[in-house]
Amino acid sequence: MAKIAVVAGDGIGTEVVAQALKVLRVILPDVETTDYDLGAARYHRTGEVLPDSVLEELRGHDAILLGAVGDPSVPPGVLERGLLLKLRFDFDQYVNLRPSRLWPGTTSPLAGVKPGEIDLVVVREGTEGLYVGAGGNLHPGTPAEVATEESLNTRHGVERVIRDAFARAAKRERRKVTLVHKTNVLTHAGGLWARTFNAVKAEFPDIETEYQHVDAAAMFLVSNPQRYDVVVTDNLFGDILTDIAAAVTGGIGLAASGSINPERAFPSMFEPVHGSAPDIAGKGIADPSAAVLSTALLLDHLGHPEAAAKVTSAVGAEVAARTPGSALSTEAIGDRLAEAVA
Amino acid sequence: MAKIAVVAGDGIGTEVVAQALKVLRVILPDVETTDYDLGAARYHRTGEVLPDSVLEELRGHDAILLGAVGDPSVPPGVLERGLLLKLRFDFDQYVNLRPSRLWPGTTSPLAGVKPGEIDLVVVREGTEGLYVGAGGNLHPGTPAEVATEESLNTRHGVERVIRDAFARAAKRERRKVTLVHKTNVLTHAGGLWARTFNAVKAEFPDIETEYQHVDAAAMFLVSNPQRYDVVVTDNLFGDILTDIAAAVTGGIGLAASGSINPERAFPSMFEPVHGSAPDIAGKGIADPSAAVLSTALLLDHLGHPEAAAKVTSAVGAEVAARTPGSALSTEAIGDRLAEAVA
Ligand SMILES: CC(C)[C@H](C(=O)O)[C@@H](O)C(=O)O
Ligand SMILES: CC(C)[C@H](C(=O)O)[C@@H](O)C(=O)O
């Protein structure tokens, strides 16, 4: 019996998570969920971001389903560093998984790119790089101020995520891994990534590989996203590239993500890429598809690949069946998906 | 009389620079040019990247016109760090200027975006951030390896480039500046950038401003590039965003850049964004337009705004007059442009 911690969060987070749970309960009837009140609302009410006791309780779960946390009223960094990144780091969620597909029934903003043609997954490193928070401000607020940010990368951290990317590629049809970095400028970290990539690649002789600088990859994601299968990259580059991948597949409405500890030594976390969207919160019009697709990633991670595939296909079919111009409510989409997987 | 150092470089660099010089000599007949042999070819022949004596000679010029340097046979970082970045840093070229326009006669890969709708300029910081090369490898080649890269940012460096961006926006029609950073994760450097932006903005009360995280900006450059006028950002973010901007305006065929020291205390450097393209080198088919547009940026920087505008319009007109499917040679395009500005 899977134990899932639910962090619905702020704004549309609560709305989309309700639908994701509806679908999850149909496909996994004995799932046990516990709600955790975290995010901007709690921060404003109590000043707390992630109390240690809550962190300990979360640790006891098989996975976390998260809606969205955040609000413009919270200073930048508070919830990001204190909640989202804290969970990624403390729970060693080193595989930040972000699939991008151009679904039948959707249109890419790219002229001439047809549904089905884009089907890639970015394996973004989740526990190192510039996200470690190592930095500071000297003489802050004066003309002499110096601000630093340090990117920390270990062979341990780089190797495990690259190996994960190869293992995922081995299970896919095209069997190709693209390493993205900036080895010509970030020679120290780039050297480590490139050497490690070459070492791991030797273990997977039948996987096609290529290397691209991050600026070139950003361009190719626009001019030729079809070329990618599995992309492995560092934390910050992955943050940027996955948003480009989302954009060329029609936006973040269908973008799912998992922050995964593949060994299941800690709970992994699954969340739509979109934010809390305060502008449309409470209106019942948010699209829950990305949250439901994130639930599919959760199911796959917990060892239910058929259930995951069923949920994913249900979303694909629902999207394909939409009538242009007539938007369904959050709840209506959730109902359709729950029915489809029943 | 302007003294220009010409670094034609490798591959198509020599071909496009020849055409750029043809145009430059028509519009600025008394220009004095000196060729410098730098790049992959010289590196292979002599082992030298940028001898001190050459650096000193370059210093005596008003500007540098560069074609492209690089070849896959050179290890990553050698020419980038030893030549391009060395010039940017030693000559304090802190404004890395990259305009992107969707020219009449070209088509964007973005469906429904029409020529004229995209007209933005990225003011990328050029002398700080992760490009400083501060980093190292501990226990290299062992399982215990740690690699670091440090982003260094000063109030001095951030303020001058932000002020330059505002000054440029003040001369444009839309008068809008977008700051792009990642303040929610890179809180130290992001804090410095955001505080400095707010301070400078107070000096330009009639300029519209906005802030975006780099991942959101990467997405908006695809979904709504029309929204941007002047974008100011750090060195690495600028590297990535300008390639997305190039992609949505039809690729790097028309992407020009200037690495500028606005005070003219040191020579500024102007170059097409494209590389040496060994695959098409020597065939006479490279499009020299980006090199010619870079020459227009050079003219503007040296105080010839009318000449710059004339060259820019000539390129625009030539591109608009192209017959789809019948590509002109490098030389033929150069001839047309030289004729047009005559
Ligand atoms: C909210 C922020 C910390 C986060 C990130 O930068 O990783 C978000 O952009 C994401 O991609 O999940
Ligand atoms: C070649 C490389 C050093 C350079 C950069 O990263 O700045 C290039 O990508 C550019 O954008 O001019």
UniProtKB/TrEMBL annotation, chains A, B:
EC numbers listed for it are 1.1.1.85
What's its top-level EC category? Answer: oxidoreductase
UniProt-recorded Gene Ontology molecular function terms: 3-isopropylmalate dehydrogenase activity
Isopropylmalate dehydrogenase-like domain: residues covered:
3-337
Q: What SUPFAM superfamilies does this protein map onto?
A: Isocitrate/Isopropylmalate dehydrogenase-like (SSF53659)
Q: Which cofactor does it need?
A: Mg(2+); Mn(2+)
Q: Which SMART domains match?
A: Iso_dh
Q: Indicate the secretion signal residues.
A: none
The protein's UniProt keywords, in alphabetical order, are:
Manganese, Metal-binding, NAD, Oxidoreductase
Q: Name one Pfam family in it.
A: Iso_dh
Q: Which InterPro entries match?
A: ICDH/IPMDH, IsoCit/isopropylmalate_DH_CS, IsoPropMal-DH-like_dom
Name of this protein: 3-isopropylmalate dehydrogenase
